[in-house]
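Mods, move this if it's the wrong board.
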Amino acid sequence: VAAVPATASAPEDFLVIAHRGASGERPEHTLAAYERAIDQGADYIEPDLVATKDMRLVARHETEIGETTDVGTREEFADRKRSKTIEGRLVTGWFAEDFTLAELRSLRVRERLPGLRPANARFDGLYAIPTFADIIALKRAKEAETGRKIGLYPELKHPTWLLQESGIDTVDLLVRQLKQEGLDGADSDVFVQVFDIAPLQRLDKMIDAPLILLIRPEGGPYDEPGMTWAGIMTPTGLAEVATYADGIGQWMGHVLGDDGTPTDLVRDAHAAGLKI
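Not the wrong board. Structure tokens:
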């Protein structure tokens, strides 16, 4: 997703958004990955947020943490392994929402895709799981160091499912954190992105920070089984999105055809007043 912020020096400026940090050079969703990205010039860093058992937002690619930490080697947590159906997909492992923050802090991060990013595996065991508060503190420290604004682009992972499954309201947790940090305003250099409809509609009533509806390549939003992404990306659907969100984060294949020819999506989204 790219959009021109109010602080941009010229209309033709564009944003560099570090997806999960500099995840090609450090294990993703670590403070090291975010700092590396900022040092390389990223305008925004993008943490995926899940929640702990004691209601703290932490950065992980998914609620399942066996893939990205050493929890599977920790005998004291062996009995936490279980299977859950997440938005229709059966997942077996260890889940952030079954751990307190203190327990998660005792784990160490490992590279999620060592076959794709083998150099990152040399950092396995070095880093802890950061909280969203840690990431905000890093943002402010790097702003003081560099003299430039560093934006945050958090994504709430599976907020509807988490509320249904565990009673954890990550929308409320995020709003409280943003307000506490003074980052809930329209000019706060924060975008909030979600794949679900209802959480964005709630957020629209609670904060002024720009909101982005994420769009998968196929299917539809989990919390609206009667809707499809294809229907949402029509002029009528986009006009409805514009009543609660400021932009969409679509798959590249929705913008360009296989031969590189542009589709109508950018034109239609802009006509609805949405950023792309």
